Amino acid sequence: xxxxxxxxxxxxxxxxxxxxxxxxxxxxxxxxxxxxxxxxxxxxxxxxxxxxxxxxxxxxxxxxxxxxxxxxxxxxxxxxxxxxxxxxxxxxxxxxxxxxxxxxxxxxxxxxxxxxxxxxxx
Length: 122
Hints:
This protein is α+β, with helices and mostly antiparallel strands. Helices cover 14% and strands 30% of the residues. The longest helix has 13 residues, at 101-113.
């Protein structure tokens, strides 16, 4: 049997710079999810403080980046996210299916207001 390439991302594939003492990270509640989520998934938060992947209908609601793999879950889960004062590799971010260049630009602008700067080739 040959070597199998799994392609599993970790937080250092996404985060290129962050504040000292893990100031850039938060432990938050992620809504139940019908599909597994990858490290780098761009997230929004609802009025109750529950996070979920952004949608193409509201990409400007982006506020954080998921920093761990999350399997399918019927229940909300505690996860670690990048939420402020950091640089991320734009090419490592995970967008919703069907996201357009305009959706991505809107989400990147929203992340920037949170202090998360997305750059290619960081």
